[in-house]
Write a structure and sequence with these properties.
The chain has 448 residues and is an alpha/beta fold. Helix content is 26%, strand content 24%. The chain is built from nine helices and 23 strands. The strands form six sheets. Strands 2, 5, 8, 11, 12, 15, 16, 17, 18, 19, 20 and 23 form a twelve-stranded mixed β-sheet that branches. A hairpin with a 3-residue loop joins strand 13 and strand 14. It is globular and about 60 Å long. It starts with a strand and ends with a strand.
Length: 448
Amino acid sequence: MLFLSEFHGRFPVGATTFKLPVSAKVLGTAKIRRHGHSDGGQSLKPALQLEQVVFTAYYPADVSGNKVKKGLDWLLRPLRASLYGYASYSGISTWLLWPIVYLYGTLLRIPVYPNAPLLRQRPTASHGHTRSETRSWPLVIFSHGLGGSRTAYSQLCTRLASSGRVVLAVQHRDGSGHAFISSTTGHGLYVREKDLIWTSDDENTMDNFRQQQLAFRRHEIYLAFRSFRQLIQDGYHGSSHGLQTIDKKPIDWSSWSSDDDTKAVECEKDVLLAGHSFGGATVFTTLSTDPPADVSAPIPVHKALILDPWLEPIPSPGPCPLPQGPGDALPQLLVISSENFSLWKTHFARLISVVQAWQPEKRRVLTILRSQHDSFSDFPLLPLVSRRPARIIMDRIVELSEAFIDGDVDAFIDETATRKMEIRIVGKKPDGSPQRQLVGEVGDLIAH
């Protein structure tokens, strides 16, 4: 048995995966072939069909008297779906990927307590009052990047949970993750441009499909939030209504329900929206677009943590903040960029311009030196391949994230030795162009 690194924070961490059946809804006009079919006609299905919302909640767990063994599968089941999904995403043969998928799929676990009850905070004396108060756990909603999943960012999600937050990691089912499993339509894999079949000539571009995926992802986030808030407010109402567990195992539903005096999780204010790469683009799209017509209530986002966002799928100019009413405030942003995305000149210049529309006076774009685009995920931290620089970078990502959530990021930056952005040439790329690198050491910080 292999485990990802365990961070011993303030609280033990539990993980429960919820699903929400919804009325089938098709977004966009692109179609794909059903897996296992090569003919046309009846073998086609919509590329973007919403019939279920799935997310894994990472949270402070009550493990007193809990006999559940620690360990949640890191790779999605069945492994065959993960195998073919990663093959579709990477373009690597399944024969070459199979040993890796089998190794990590059968042995690797996330060090959390599956389906453990949510820990309820103890009452504390309120200032100036004899009556005690019980605080609610703050809520984070996380959106994964291309090829990702609800477990692929477990190191970040569990560390946020261990410090006292409930993190909902959405499993996007738009063909952007490596795979997803549906109880009604079977498994779906990462969608490539060559997989798409268009029904009209004016939509046959991958850019257009990416925009449709963003709309689909936004819909999933709103539905996940609405259903989770309903669980917290109203409690569990049986197997035919609202959220269910994906593995159908019994859980202590009462631990998630609010009582007369306190809410188990704070869903009415101060929600943090977070995402990496395409998930970062999802966050920007969610913040700059009105809620879907059939999901009227907005998400009360107070802050947005955007990790190495990929802006190309979003039409330019933009994304731009929505118009604010009297007394309304824009969500606070923090963008953490990898070194290679910071060296992508045109993309990085656009990112700086976009962030200034939200935070014109503050240092809200930070670069971590020697970080790569996948440094925000679990992949560089997998057993047998993990190296010290990857762990240093993840520590820095978590430090910045928690400082931002706690409202201390400016003080953290002031107390940290930051660098100016200086570039040096360290060699040549295979195409003969110069290989550039930022001056500094692994984990150093640049505030833009």
